């Protein structure tokens, strides 16, 4: 199996951390794409993923799976040991709920803030700086949601590290590029972040 990715991009990092947590990094090879140079928007790559985003998993039968969480779900089903998406129906639902919250209201918003305030992809989209600035503010507000949740739980979706923590960790790190930091008055988020960034998987 092969994963097409850009090592500096946040979405591929989610998959790498997930695989590292499950001890599966040796199950795949990685091929780097220069997304700033547009290697992901070529006709050839669009045959692998018509949305032209990374990462993309190429299976041994020549088929492709894109979208980070879909790739993670594939590996979770294939290798259920060290579960990161829950075991019981309730655990699975709660982790999915928090994963989606972290993705929709934090990860995606930080991404929009980055794209629209920096103009990084101005060659293929029309940045709207005002919208980007609103996204930056919106991303910062999500820390209040995390603070409340983490005041009652060790990890974001409960007592176990999960894909929700991976999404949030990657987002916190990537948010530095738009100058969004964890506020000092949120001790539970700071406690959580110090713990998860020390995990060996966070270094991949």
Tell me the layout of helices and strands.
Layout (H helix, E strand, L loop, with lengths): L1 E4 L4 H12 L7 E4 L10 H4 L9 E3 L5 E3 L1 H11 L10 H30 L10 H22 L12 H12 L12 H10 L8
Helix pairs in contact: 1-3, 1-6, 4-5, 4-6, 5-7
What does this protein structure show overall?
The chain is built from 7 helices and 4 strands, in the order βαβαββααααα. It is of the alpha+beta class and 204 residues long. The protein folds into 2 domains: 2-78, Glutaredoxin (3-Layer(aba) Sandwich), CATH 3.40.30.10; 89-203, Glutathione S-transferase Yfyf (Class Pi), Chain A, domain 2 (Up-down Bundle), CATH 1.20.1050. A 4-stranded mixed β-sheet has the order 2-1-3-4, with helices on one face. α1 packs antiparallel against α6 (163-174), α4 (89-118) packs antiparallel against α5 and α5 crosses α7. The longest helix is centred in the middle third of the chain and has 30 residues, at 89-118. The chain is globular. The model has no long low-confidence stretch (mean pLDDT 97).
